[in-house]
Amino acid sequence: MHPTLNIALPELEWIGLLRDQIAKGRTISALSRECGIARASLSMLLSGSYPAQSLDLVTRKHGARIVRLYRGAVLCPHLRTSISAEVCRGHASAPMSTSNHEKMKHWEACRVCPLKPEVTAR
Predict the structure, then answer these.
(1) If you ran DSSP here, which 8-state letter would residue 36 be given?
(2) How many CB atoms lie within 10 A of CB 51?
(3) Is residue 60 part of a domain?
(4) How many CB atoms are located within 10 Å of the residue 80 CB?
(5) What is the count of structural domains for the chain?
(6) pTM (2 decimals)?
(7) Residues 50 and 59: beta-carbon distance below 8 Å
(8) Does 49 reside within a domain?
(9) What is the distance between the alpha carbons of residues 66 and 74, in angstroms, rounded to a whole number?
(10) Distance of alpha carbon 65 from alpha carbon 59, whole angstroms
(11) pLDDT digit string, tens, across residues 5-33
(12) What is the domain range of residue 117?
């Protein structure tokens, strides 16, 4: 038996988007079909009873699609929040920064990001 921690963690953005859809009257079954998540898994995610110790794997698998569907944005794996497609393109096409450590880390993350948009030459 795993002990539970009573720590109030912030809700993941993509789960909040799903909760918003439920609040608008959408059914779990409809969301399940639309998002490609098994209905039972989606129900457990929304109720907070999903059996995984961490939601990292589920977030990597479904989070980006849900943010794109319901917010029209990109779930940036580096920033761990949604950004507009335009901002994503801006980060992906930005030149390498050698003077700012955080920008350099973001630049490196963009190089290998599976969500990286096609960038046209400036």
Answers:
(1) T
(2) 7
(3) no
(4) 11
(5) 1
(6) 0.69
(7) no
(8) no
(9) 9
(10) 10
(11) 444 557 888 999 999 999 999 999 999 99
(12) 73-122
